[in-house]
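Lecture 7, part 2: worked example. A protein chain together with iron/sulfur cluster.
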Amino acid sequence: MEMYQAARRHFGHQGWWPGDGALEICIGAILTQNTNWKNVEKAIANLKSAGLMSISAIHSTPVEKLAELIRPTGYFNIKARRLKNFIKHAYETAGDDIEAFLDKPLSELRAELLSISGIGRETADSIILYAAGKPTFVVDAYTYRILLRHGLISDDYDYEMIKELLESSLPEDVELFNDFHAQFVAVGKNYCRPKPQCKGCPLEYLPHDIHAGEEF
Ligand code: SF4
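Predicted complex, written out as structure tokens:
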């Protein structure tokens, strides 16, 4: 909580997720891997212009056309297939109703999302937290690097171990999990880069070792 409060004092509330409605958040979570948000915005704008902001519309669109529309995000052929896989699953279980698809117990939803080809843990948890509004902590490379440099994890911690550490150390609070992940991203993008810039970082006053996780 001290880390969160220090980061939030510095950056302010981050107001995530920058998407309009549950389906757009799901699509953004799938497209944002390995690219920046500006590229995702361009891809979402293309989908909207093509009238493809519904489950059924995307479901009936050939994967090649989808790939062309989401080209700005990079890895567009792979991402188009991932998006189609997700949409096919949602369509077959809930038709055109994304809210109905997301409206199930967290563990059930997580298992379902992880069973979809191409949907990894970070994407699944982003959908659960930001689209479904359920308390799961999203772990990413920034989270790993910051916790490692601050001696809160060792380098053999995997995704599930970090998630468990965070969830068991914090009050179960969707709003907190939402903004804390965003704060980790803000710290990681602005200060805790592969070459850390500790001077001026809001977490500088906490014990840290900049030589931990040098390869990340
Ligand atoms: S930049 Fe330095 S002070 Fe900031 S989070 Fe990384 S290791 Fe900690």
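Residues 146, 149-150, 187, 191-192, 196-198, 201, 203-204, 208, 210 surround iron/sulfur cluster (CB under 6 Å). The chain has twelve helices and no strands. Keep this in mind for problem set question 3.
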